[in-house]
Amino acid sequence: MQEINLGEYLYGGIERIIKGAMKATLKNPKESVFLGKYTLSAKKAAKIRKAYEESNIHIPAFLIASITTQCNLHCAGCYARANQCCSDVVSLGQLTNEEWNTVFSQAEDLGVSFILLAGGEPFLRRDVVEEAAKHKDIIFPIFTNGTMFEEKYMKLFDENRNLVPILSIEGQKEATDMRRGIGMYETLQENMTNLQRKGILYGVSVTVTKSNLEEVMSEAFTDMLVNKGTKVVIYVEFIPVDEKTKDLAINDKERILMEQRLAKLRVEQPHLVFVSFPGDEKTSGGCLAAGRGFFHINAMGGAEPCPFSPYSDTNVRDNTLLEALRSPLFQKLRADNILMKEHVGGCVLFEQREIVEGFMNI
Question: Which of 155, 163, 91 lies closest to 131 in space, CA to CA?
């Protein structure tokens, strides 16, 4: 399979989206103006990261921030609920919007270009989303289940083009409703139509399992996304967190088929950006967690290698973002080449979780 540098591909994808938007300036001036300005911001951020690199400090371009533990859905096989990182009610001790604003400001100063907002359901923290909107040099993809797209959020996205909604979908109607609840597919279709009508850049996130792999990689599914105006498709390989859900995970043979189809899609649909997680990491020199390509901050401020590896020895309440990036756990994972280990499944940190837990006890 042809290798891909994930960082370069994503930046190239942004450039392709910008060119497409520029061609439609009369129809979509807001998007064109923002994306044009963002190219300058991205170049500035890259220079900041390069300056740190010259001092032997690696700053990833990406950060994942789970801004709440609360969610209003009970999706089948949800890793966050299985890890007790998600619940029906607000958990005590979560970062305030002011604290998240500090994190975003520090990230901006370090040259971070993308901060993925997750949860729980991030739309339940409108205060944090509004803080994110103020940081125009950063693009904030917001991973949402799509149940809270009332007019006030549509207005927020229309006025702040650095906020990019990423809707979770599992394939066509049967697969989506089976995992996310009856009626969710139609709700998502309505949201996609409204986003397209308003000319708002958006994407979708697809959790890939044994049962939906063929469907979500099909021409019919990707054509539907194209017709709905989707610009970014993120395939997230299902990572089991217990024995009960292990059978949902794809195997190596299926993973190869997925990689081959993804390579074909990138050629056939050049106007879309396709990302596979953690699949693309194998062609990017190993796992990108623990600061190699990104890291995760949980709702309580704990700096973790990855959402699928919920271990932390450093909190951004007590440390700067730069200090969190250089946490003992992150340094140990990088120094001991844990991130480069050969592994059978899609996630090396999940397979090596006993070793990671051992680092926490040192």
Answer: 163
The backbone region for 61, taken as left when phi is positive above 0, alpha when psi lies in -120 to 50, beta otherwise, is: alpha
- The identity of residue 289, as a single letter, is A
Please answer whether residues 164 and 190 qualify as being in contact, where contact means their C-beta atoms are separated by less than 8 angstroms: no
Burial 107-124 (b: 16+ CB within 10 A, else e): bbebbbbbbbbbbbbbbb
SS3 227: helix
**pLDDT tens-digit readout, 205-234:** 999 999 999 999 998 999 999 999 998 888
- pLDDT digit string (tens) for 13-50? 555 555 544 444 346 677 777 777 888 888 899 899 99
Whole-angstrom distance, CA of residue 32 vs CA of residue 271:
15
By DSSP bridging, strand 140-144 and strand 163-168 are: parallel
List 331's β-bridge partners, or say none.
none
| Single-letter residue type at 324 | A
Cβ 104 vs Cβ 116: under 8 Å: no
Contact assessment for residue 330 and residue 344, using Cβ atoms and an 8 Å cutoff: no
